[in-house]
Amino acid sequence: MLILFVSNDNDGAARLEADLSGHSLDWQFSWTNRADVALACSPSPDVLVCADQIGSRRGLTLLDQLRGRHPDAVRILLMDAGHDQDAMQAMEVAHRVLPEPLDSLALFDAIKSVLELRALLGNPALKNAIARVGSLPTAPRQYLALTRLLRDPGASAASIVEVVTSDPAVAAKVLRMTNSAYYSYGREVSNLRAAVTRLGQTALCQLVLASEVFTTGKHSSDAEAMRGRALRISQLAGQLLPGPSADLAATAGLLAEVGLLLPPLEGGQDGGALPPPMAGAYLLGLWGLPSAIVEAVAFHQTPSRVGGSFWVTGAVHVAAALINGSEVDEDYLRTVGRLDQLPHWRALANVLPE
Question: pLDDT at residue 93 above 80?
């Protein structure tokens, strides 16, 4: 396995190379601090690790260019702690976002989990089972259009409202939520532009996504129940991680149970039914959602399968378990050093609005 590390940090690159050689792995390591050298890399690397800044060039931009040249490589972006970069934008390009300076164990865990997810989604039995379904729920186009628009600093409020009003059912739900006790503060809102402003970008995206995804595939009463549960899981998951990771956790939490939209699929172990999280993750992979979200949906019931520290999968596991009244994996939380926070998280779940 060839790892290409693109960074201005000479000392960090040397430490990482020494760590890798000390683990007796059949991995090769190549380092450069020049974007042009990285783009001309041959043979094709299996893993791309790119710092947040390479000279005068943003690491995210360079990683996107490298993705075009090496589409099958595992892509990892490094970011400084407290960086305000949009994590959702980064995760459209990178499979993982890790803190700088890079820790070798974190790199091992990131590569392992990405490869495991790829093996899951490439499972022939899963592909065949999905193929037999026929018509699948369509990708949430309105949500994808909205998230891209919100990342455009030149986007106007009118353009955001235009996206929301392209689906009258979604527009009605935005007005309904804005006038709920949780958001209204006793003041009625009948203007959609004012509703969008009051709701806020994150809540707006989650509501649009829930409306699009859970409108199809189930009877209306079932869809409404799933939508309500998904929004609560989303709200709680978003409170369990700091900074930009909160948006990733909220989106993954919203989609944690998307596999329930699909009929039972055979192809699991011993010829039995595939677990809904696996089927849901495959569906999200087809939609092209960020791999951190796909992974969290796939493994939120078995978070210990994802190595490393407490991140999106762990947050979705805790949130889904608390909202659904199921068991939280305390052994997992103990392993990642978060068991002491479980009472506080339970308290957060208990005060969420229905």
Answer: yes
